[in-house]
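Fill in residues.
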């Protein structure tokens, strides 16, 4: 068992080193996608914390490369299920970076951002920041889109992360403005 864990750590460390050492975006994308997938398995979380992969995922959220952003938010979403990683994300004031991903034209990026926000909304202080009126309005708009995945996840967000008063207030605010003034476009399928 110990050897397997050591091998697992070494493999993940090799991936992180490969990401840092390569200059080719395509190779970085592949490594980042692998790290994001490995972040889904709880067996890997401790190793990924040691390797500071959450920092790497956070850094990707400000990149111009849409693949970097997609894999970064996907990995962050997977790590945000772990309470320590959730705390780390919140302590690094990453909520604005996650919120920025809601305006991505890529559905996977938006879905991961919504899921990450839901995972981060458990501490009461972060719930207030996550259920800001602009976010509630954004989720209400997403709940009207054609994509069943996005529509359903937005409904879950509104039900689980927003009060009835917030939803009513957001609906009133949306009714007072035209669709063109809302700001965040729906992602393309």
């Amino acid at each position: 068992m110990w050897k397997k864990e050591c091998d697992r750590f070494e493999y993940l460390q090799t991936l992180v080193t490969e990401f840092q050492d390569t200059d080719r975006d395509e190779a970085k994308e592949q490594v980042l996608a692998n790290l994001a997938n490995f972040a889904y398995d709880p067996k890997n979380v401790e190793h990924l914390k040691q390797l500071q992969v959450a920092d790497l995922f956070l850094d990707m959220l400000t990149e111009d490369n849409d693949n970097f952003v997609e894999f970064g938010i996907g990995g962050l979403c997977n790590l945000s299920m772990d309470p320590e990683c959730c705390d780390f994300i919140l302590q690094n004031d990453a909520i604005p970076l996650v919120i920025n991903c809601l305006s991505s034209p890529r559905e996977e990026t938006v879905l991961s951002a919504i899921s990450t926000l839901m995972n981060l909304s458990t501490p009461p202080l972060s719930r207030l920041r996550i259920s800001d009126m602009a976010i509630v309005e954004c989720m209400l708009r997403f709940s009207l889109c054609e994509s069943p995945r996005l529509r359903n996840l937005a409904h879950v967000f509104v039900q689980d992360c927003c009060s009835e008063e917030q939803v009513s207030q957001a609906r009133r605010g949306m009714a007072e403005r035209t669709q063109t003034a809302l700001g965040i476009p729906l992602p393309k399928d």
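The CA atoms of residues 156 and 182 lie 21 Å apart.
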